[in-house]
Hints:
The chain has helices at about 10-15, 60-65, 95-105, and strands at about 1-5, 20-25, 35-40, 40-45, 50-55, 70-75, 80-90, 115-130. By secondary structure, the chain is an alpha+beta fold. It has one domain (about 1-130): Electron Transport, Fmn-binding Protein, Chain A (Pnp Oxidase, Chain A, Roll), CATH 2.30.110.10. Strands 1, 2, 3, 4, 5, 6, 7 and 8 form an eight-stranded antiparallel beta sheet that branches. Strand 6 (about 70-75) and strand 7 (about 80-90) form a beta hairpin. The protein is globular and about 35 Å long. It starts with a strand and ends with a strand.
Amino acid sequence: MSLDPSDLSDGVRLFLEERRLGTLTTLRPDGSPHVVAIGFTWDGAAGIVRVITFASSRKAANLRANPRSRAAVCQVDGGRWITLEGTATVTDDPARVSEAVRRYAERYQPPRPRDDRVAIEIEVDRVLGRA
């Protein structure tokens, strides 16, 4: 079922707030999918998914190789699932990374400090799921 990212139901929003891991799918330079387990946060007001990572990670490299490329985050719990798709960017802007870390700490736990931390931001334009 396709959902409007700006008008998610209370049930979908609550599902996205649960302390669960998801997967992030990016595309390698050869076009094959790279899928990794991640913690993520959903900012419904901005329509953005945020993932924190380190600058030299494969997922960040994949996105840097093709700026403004598409990515997808998926969260699954039994028969409930949601996929958030959109255009992704990697940022090392301190304010944006700090916001991603703050949100991650609220949903999961404070991450270990890193000097090379970056944030992946996905501007969600498509939501699929059954949550």
